[in-house]
Amino acid sequence: LKRMVDKSDGLTILPELAVMEFNKNQLKLVKQIKEPRPAREVSLVTHRDHLKTKLIETLKAEVLQIVPAPMQQLKNKKVVEISD
């Protein structure tokens, strides 16, 4: 998507983590979404009979280690629920 936009002067919506890799020239073209900023929620769904607590806690710790601290807070962000 980024290359297509670069070549055709188009636009797209990118996750904040993808923008963190941009160089100075690319960052000049980025426009932030106004408040309330959208947020993505990450969930892990398991069957209650096969719950492996240690594995889930390890996975949670790994994800939280990678995601920058400011992104781990829902302050001024809006999670839109998906309904059937």
Task: Describe the model.
The protein has 84 residues and is mainly alpha-helical. It folds into 2 domains: 1-32, no CATH class; 39-79, no CATH class. Helices cover 35% and strands 5% of the residues. It has helices at residues 2-8, 16-19, 24-27, 53-66, and strands spanning 37-38, 77-78. It has a two-stranded parallel ribbon. Strand 1 (37-38), helix 4 (53-66) and strand 2 form a beta-alpha-beta unit. The longest helix is centred in the C-terminal third of the chain and has 14 residues, at 53-66.
Keywords:
84 residues; mainly alpha; two-stranded parallel ribbon; 4 helices; 2 strands; 35% helix; 5% strand
Structure summary:
This protein is mainly alpha-helical and 84 residues long. The chain is 35% helix and 5% strand. The protein has four helices and two strands.
Please state how the strands of the largest beta sheet are arranged side by side. 1-2
Give the overall silhouette.
elongated
What's the total helix number? 4
Radius of gyration, in Å, reads 17 Å
Q: Which structural class matches the secondary elements?
A: mainly alpha
Q: Give the mean pLDDT.
A: 81
User: In this structure, how is the largest beta sheet organized?
Assistant: 2 strands, parallel
Helix fraction? 25-40%
Regions with pLDDT < 50 over 5+ consecutive residues? Answer: none
Strand content: under 5%
End-to-end CA span: 29 Å
Number of domains: 2
Q: Got a strand count?
A: 2
| SSE pattern, N- to C-terminal | HHHEHE
